[in-house]
Amino acid sequence: MKNYGLELSGRTITAKRDVFIMGIVNCTGDSFYSESRGGAERAFKLEQEGADIIDLGAESTRPGADYVSAEEEIKRLVPVIREIRKKSSIPISIDTRKKSVMEAAFNEGADMLNDVSALEDDEEMASFAAEKGIPVFLMHKRGIPSDMQNDTSYEDVFAEVDSYLRSRADYAVSKGISPSKIIVDPGIGFGKDLEANKCLTARCGQLCGGKYPVLMALSRKSYIGAITGRQTEDRLYGTIACNILSILSGASFVRVHDVAPCADVLAVLKSFRESGLL
Q: What is the pLDDT of residues 150-170, one digit of tens each?
């Protein structure tokens, strides 16, 4: 567990409990977990429960989902950001692949970019993030949501994901993004089968040789259902277990639907760490 400051465009933030909690707010009608759908009121609820960051998304990336236009993303996101900024300065991450969407969100007060394409889908995105000093989350995936589960075979999933993330981080740096503003994400559930997801959860802290902080976004995902036999709405306890495994492996960020239980887990882990027992 690493406690470090993350520099945003105009301020530095530190996790309350050593690991940053990103609370999920999906400004969509088709995200795989219905309770994550909402707007500013959900964001305020998650902040009250202990979220360090609010992650707003307006384009579902669940398996089988279709992409939406930049105009539609902006239409969904901007009013929510405005409402949040009327009452709160909580850091806001934007889950998008499009520079025009990130620019519109940044102009309304968003702070961070969570790009599931790792800066591949829009060639202008990296330069924009570098210019504005925006931290970027770079995720590994295979294919697009409509077909990403068609091919989940790897010779060595850890080596292949690791190699990809290293290459995308190098690309980000080449475009002027500071290494201190790069976070990597192995993309749990994005073109991976059960064993691949387990491997990446257990070894996440080893990605890129530990050079970059790691985000784990595994909340209520299907691999947890495969292990537990539970449907999406009943995967909280499995999610907690997998988050603990990833944190003990070295994750610095966890992206979750259920902030309060995660905050309690991190409080306990921090207490043990401070006592020298972890």
A: 778 899 999 999 999 999 999
Global confidence as pTM: 0.93
75 as an active site residue: the answer is no
Tokens of 171: 């690309």
CA 140 vs CA 8, 157, 209, 248: distances in Å? 23, 11, 16, 21
Considering the four listed CATH numbers 3.40.50.1010, 3.30.390.50, 3.20.20.20, 3.40.640.10, the one that applies to the domain covering 5-274 is 3.20.20.20
Catalytic residue (one of 42, 192, 255, 270): 255
Identify the active-site residue in 221, 235, 270, 273: 221
Strands 182-185 and 136-139: parallel
Residue-wise pLDDT for 206-222, tens only, equals 999 999 999 999 999 99
Candidates 216, 208, 214; CA nearest to 161 is 208
Active site residue 87: no
The domain locations on the chain are 5-274
Contacts 24+ apart (CB under 8 A), 69-72: 70/98, 70/100, 70/101
